[in-house]
User: What shape does this take?
Amino acid sequence: MVLPLVFADARTRAGRLADRTSFGVGGVPEFLFEPGTKTDATLDLTFCRRHGVAVRVLGGGSNLLVGDGVLEGAVVATRRLRAVRVLEDRVEVGAGVPLGFLVRRAGRWSIPALSGCVGIPGSVGGAVLGNAGGRFGCVGEALLEVRGVDERGRPFARRVRSGDLGYRECVFEGCLVTGAVFRRDEALEPGVEERLLSRALAHKRATQPLGARSAGCTFRNPAGDPRSAGRLIEEAGLKGRRVGGAVVSDQHANFILNDGHATARDIGALIRSVRREVKTFCGVDLELEVRVWT
Ligand code: EPU
Assistant: This one.
């Protein structure tokens, strides 16, 4: 039998998710698993299925709002899935490797398009599932293969096909991603990826509150509308809007910040109020990009 590697405890706050999310909020799950290999991850999922325990997968915790109380079921955290193998034509990376680690080595390892991920916190697994990136490139552009365990507990390794990843979406949603394989492009001119990286970083430093406690962009950009979610929120006059310790960033309106005293309840209430007002003032229904666990 596989036992949880960490015993979460609501009384001692051991395993509390506030310490594992970039928002810095979140309560304690009933069970917390931290598999170090794909085999262990498969066994953990089998254990949960057999006992009827619902499972949620925690990557880098950077695009996630976790409720304040006890979280029913199990959380499987990927942060110990950290193996990296650099081969001639590809790089194999564990899902728990921080995305920033990979982005910083993209030039040296000739992985294209990762400059679009500079400044994005979180793990490689989460970045694959959300097809992290932006105008300077997305994770999906360099992705060859995804490895993991599917919803029915079966391990898989699948080559990525065109259409598998879209804007903030991915066909592997619902699976536990344990690793990813990225293409190396030897034709990539030395220094090109580094130059793109500096440009992307300069743009983000100028426009986003990079060091603050947040979950990045809160809402997806609306499809078919030339206005970004950030612009719409600004147009609705919501920069600086506050509920308790949660505040809409003055720098980029699609970022909600925890000023250090926010609860998940504050952040949730602020999200609802922003949605309501953007609907009233701009006529647009914003869709959440941040995942919510309650
Ligand atoms: N804008 C405003 N007010 C604001 C923010 C933005 O008017 O408060 C305007 C900007 O002036 C610009 C337009 O909106 O004309 C787009 O802004 P930006 O370049 O900042 O890009 P974005 O669409 O807001 C997207 C991704 C970001 C990614 C950047 C850069 C989404 C929801 N967001 O932001 O991703 O970093 O492009 O590539 O797709 C994330 O997903 O967490 C995230 C931060």
In short: The mean pLDDT is 93. The pocket of EPU is lined by residues 134-136, 204, 207, 216-217, 220-221, 228-231, 234, 252-254, 289 (CB under 6 Å). The longest strand covers residues 70-77. The helical segments are 38-50, 99-105, 124-129, 192-207, 229-235, 264-282.
